[in-house]
Amino acid sequence: LHRIFSGLKPTGHLTLGNYLGAVRRWVAEDQHRADALFCVVDLHALTVEHDPARVRRLTRQAATLLLAAGLDPRLCTVFVQSHVHEHTRLSYLMECTASDGEMRRMIQYKEKAAREAGRGGSVRLSLLTYPALMAADILAYGADEVPVGDDQAQHVELTRDLALRFNQRYGQVFTVPRATVPRVASRVMDLRDPTSKMGKSHAETSGIIYLLDEPDTVRRKVMRATTDSGAAGDVVHDRENRPGVANLLDILAACTGGAPGDLAAGYSSYGALKKDTAEAVVEMLRPLRERHAELSADPAQVDAVLRAGAERAAALARPRVDAAYAAVGLMPPV
Ligand code: TYM
């Protein structure tokens, strides 16, 4: 049986990047074509400085948004990572499989460690071991596909390496997974700073579209997006030299289903492109916002989904994690 696993961490409000890079495909494709599990990975949110009340709130909000976006608990499994103990159980074995060097080579570790150090803070050890927990998330379920945005591809590569290494050393326990990345908008860029990724935990928010932004907020952010100076105001799709315009074209293409290069030909001014992009995003997010408002009024319904999801996830993961424990030589409970 084909199995899919993916997750997102509650470190901030979900963004258009999360939606176009990941969630939208989970809803439109993945939940229909495989046994799919989607997880709010709250333990991962503790790898950087955090506020307990905020993580708690964002975890519930992320779960509610996943359902509002259209994940259907009759088709897939939605749950919270910390509710299923197999993740941390297996994460330790992944730490015993990975090397210090390969963890330190992860781009996200380098970037985030530099950012934390820049703030004068210390770097949590869990930020370094993060990919071991992520590998455990995926491998515990025998997932063969991991639908993610481009920025997570390196972590999935490492997960593959760890699965192969573990299997070679201790016998065939894990399925070797692969990342799937969307064709368009695999890396949505910040609207104000189109050379960096639109990220939910950034401090400067004027270039980030949050899924729950009011329509007028979305419009304002898109209209103020940085377009590229220098060149004449013609509209071309050129990520290298015109990152701002290319980003808007990617977003518009992702919303409307066109190809970014083809869409460019239809515009002769940045203003018109921005206007259409803003409206396309507003319309795409409208049903999600409405459904989120309904579901927020009924937290018991979300709780019931998460409870059933955690039960099913634990039942799926336990035998494989038990097998991994036995394979590495740990004595089974007597
Ligand atoms: P996270 O929470 O940063 O992001 C969730 C998903 O959204 C994608 N994404 C983007 N895609 C396109 N453009 C962007 N600007 C953008 N920003 C985020 C991410 O690629 C991701 O697919 N480590 C993961 C969470 C995780 C996970 C897992 C994912 C933990 N365990 C196991 C898959 C499988 C993360 O930090 O995602």
Biggest β-sheet: strands ordered side by side in the sheet: 1-2-3
Can you write the helix and strand succession as a string? EHEHEHHHHEHEHHHHH
CATH architecture of the largest domain: 3-Layer(aba) Sandwich
Number of domains: 2
Biggest sheet descriptor: 3 strands, parallel
Question: What is the distance, rounded to the nearest whole angstrom, between the alpha carbons of the first and last residues?
Answer: 32 Å
Q: What would you call the shape?
A: globular
Helicity level: 40-55%
Low-confidence stretches: none
- For the record, the CATH class of the largest domain is Alpha Beta
Number of strands: 5
Q: Write down the overall mean pLDDT.
A: 96
Family: Belongs to the class-I aminoacyl-tRNA synthetase family.
GO molecular function: tryptophan-tRNA ligase activity
Keywords: Aminoacyl-tRNA synthetase, ATP-binding, Cytoplasm, Ligase, Nucleotide-binding, Protein biosynthesis
Subcellular location: Cytoplasm
